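Reading a protein record of the kind used here takes little practice once its layout is understood. An example of such a record is reproduced below.
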Amino acid sequence: MKHKALIALALSLCLSTGVVRATDDIRSRLVVDSTWLASQLDDPKLVILHVGDPDDYAKGHIPGARLVTLDDLSVSEHTKNGLMLEMPADDELRTRLQKLGISDDSRIIVYYAKDWVSPATRIVFTMQYAGLGERTSLLDGGMKAWVRQGHSLSKAAASAAPGTLAPLKTEPLIVDAAYVREHVGTPGVSVVDGRAAVYYDGVDTGGAHGQVHKTGHIKGAHSIPFTELANDTLLIRSQDELKAIFDKAGVKPGDTVVGYCHVGQQATATLFAARLLGHPVKLYDKSFQDWSRGADNAVETAAARGRP
């Protein structure tokens, strides 16, 4: 019996070590630190994208970084009934990526200025959707971490030379309301609300362009607010911390995580955390702005789920 117990323990340790190693490998691909980035600045294949306010970019940015805004890589209809932050068509997205200097052999680093974490993860998600996810990483801690580590900033605008991309091989990462209705609550899929808890719980009601959203959240969805990705210093939380957050929310290991938020930005921070833990991910890009318009799209509040 002791022999069998020792074998079982050894197998358990091997399996757990394998999981840790696998997620550590994922993290090393998806996240880089300032020391590594500083050592790569002379790499001609490196494309650094600064996500932030244009005025702040002009005051100082990581040397060689190009300014990118959400409008550069998304489509928004600024009307009362318009949808915000939709993914562009493939050919249009390819053109926009090339304008940022991205080529087939580029190594892409995205960083957030100030606290623009979820806009930065939206850019990272867009790269993943475009088939460039294996060559795209997020800078841990953003520009604040870069400065804290003593690295210099530049006021010089980056080269405007365009890149060269083959036709995109986009990944099937975008889903619609019908997909969510079909999969919410089914084994192997976790629909996750990335908004602040006050919206999920129904304490506050969101809205945009004069449209008031439904109060509460998609019925059956879990809550992992976008702010959980990073700590107070904007460094990305450890694997153990992230796993504890997902476990508490009810997301099971290996689940495909389908994220949504108000308009499809904040949820990408939650999805980035899910990728760090090895989860397949998808984005309900139209998000709650779209879900609120469907009479058959069920919602509930925290009280309905038994939360205080």
Summary: Confidence is low (pLDDT under 50) at residues 1-21. Residues 25-148 form a domain with the Oxidized Rhodanese; domain 1 fold (CATH 3.40.250.10). The chain has two domains: 25-148, 174-305. The radius of gyration is 20 Å.
